[in-house]
Amino acid sequence: MIGPSEVVASFDDPADNLAFDEALLRAAPEAPVLWIWRNTDCVVVGRGQKIEREVKADVCASDGIPVLRRASGGGTVFHDPGNLNITLVLPGPSHRPLEALGELMTATVAELGLPSRLGDRGLFVGDAKLCGFAVFRTRTGLLAHSTLLVSTAAERVGRYLTSAPADPRPLDSHRSRVASLAEHGLRKGVADVTAAVRVAAAAQLGELATRKPSDEEQEWHRSLQHTRYHYPEWHAEGAQRK
What we know:
8 helices, 11 strands, alpha/beta, three-stranded mixed beta sheet, single chain
């Protein structure tokens, strides 16, 4: 019987991490898959978002911060090594995918000793957003992923993302004040926070077997690198290479 697993993988290029994130879903796993990962500094927009409405492109260019696109919806986020990414892939149909992710992240933050509340597309401590959520579905399953601000300073997020536009559109990000665990006085290292995610995931999904990427996941990774994540037009406009 196939049970839940945690896949262990990391890539130096943020685009390669985003490609692998999607590859985990495209490989159509038969049981839940957890992946915990980090990126170097970058900005990541949602699937259908317009960069000019979300990102201070001139500041990103000046600071050498790449602007990338992911396959899921949701809002634009800033990634750096102080921001932990948690991917949860669930097989089959699910009518409430964000509920499973919300439960996982709520339990993680509780394990770290902070009270939190679920809000619109994220987890909040007080009035500050700690985690953002996004979801992507296929016919065989769904991917739900979250950011968790461990030590990323709110000022860094604000430096690269625009303020809420005066003429809001359906795909625009919903801007919220953000604050990391460190800014809430919880100065845990990434290793401690990762351990808390694993404890919460095991309680929710059952014991997770640690494994390397499967052959099918690696094949999908290579394919998505070619058609999307190593193709500049994908990041600029969401266009795929034929």
